[in-house]
């Protein structure tokens, strides 16, 4: 604060008033001090003692589906129990919204940050690196280096089990609709599929969206030898497969078995109910929040947590030839 005051030509109490959002500072002086704080990456922080953590920030690339909602519910449960407030933000507003978010964080309004999914990309991590604030990456989109703790899911194992489930039902023409190639979990799920199959298989690219699942499934089902089963790398794309099959008059699961990934709340209400790989999304949120609070208190943590996925068998898969298993069970 003394350094900022000196180069701004103001008193230390003036810098303090700017940092704490108090009145008594002209707009020009406030703007000059804030610019210098941003330029120097200033972040006022004192080691948190028990009960002193007041606010954490949770940042998503976007918030548009139940995937984010489940994470938020888990984070909120832990924060609420600890008496800690939380602010949820997304980066969908572009550079302006991102700049406003970073400005608030730089001015010391948070005790820790959870970066979810693609928000843990290099740009955001680099912007936070000088703030002396604990950061946890929840389901990071890319492989992280350095000291950032991570919480993720066993994507390879989940995809392996999904593919093995279809093989155990007698399917051999098993295609996959993969996720975005630049997202880390997409590659892990693709690798799990290929490991179970023992070969490359037939893979169509997707974007983790309903529309991409629909487009990819239409291409697969129009082939001379269409697959008898499709593993989609998330539930939204699996529902796109449902729509492609409906348009082509292909019955699920009599003529086509479908498996998704995530087990979002709507999966069980699909028609037929969707067999899928359950990611413990809410528990992942809880674990990320607990890790962040421990970091803020200076406690020891497990720096890299990978949570178990489970096969949930419903009515969208059957033995090749159409013998439906029915019901819901864990595998």
Automatic annotation (TrEMBL):
<keyword id="KW-0238">DNA-binding</keyword>
<dbReference type="InterPro" id="IPR028082">
    <property type="entry name" value="Peripla_BP_I"/>
</dbReference>
<protein>
    <submittedName>
        <fullName>LacI family transcriptional regulator</fullName>
    </submittedName>
</protein>
<dbReference type="InterPro" id="IPR046335">
    <property type="entry name" value="LacI/GalR-like_sensor"/>
</dbReference>
<keyword id="KW-0805">Transcription regulation</keyword>
<keyword id="KW-0804">Transcription</keyword>
<dbReference type="GO" id="GO:0000976">
    <property type="term" value="F:transcription cis-regulatory region binding"/>
</dbReference>
<dbReference type="InterPro" id="IPR000843">
    <property type="entry name" value="HTH_LacI"/>
</dbReference>
<feature type="domain" description="HTH lacI-type">
    <location>
        <begin position="1"/>
        <end position="50"/>
    </location>
</feature>
<dbReference type="Pfam" id="PF13377">
    <property type="entry name" value="Peripla_BP_3"/>
</dbReference>
<dbReference type="GO" id="GO:0003700">
    <property type="term" value="F:DNA-binding transcription factor activity"/>
</dbReference>
<dbReference type="Pfam" id="PF00356">
    <property type="entry name" value="LacI"/>
</dbReference>
<dbReference type="InterPro" id="IPR010982">
    <property type="entry name" value="Lambda_DNA-bd_dom_sf"/>
</dbReference>
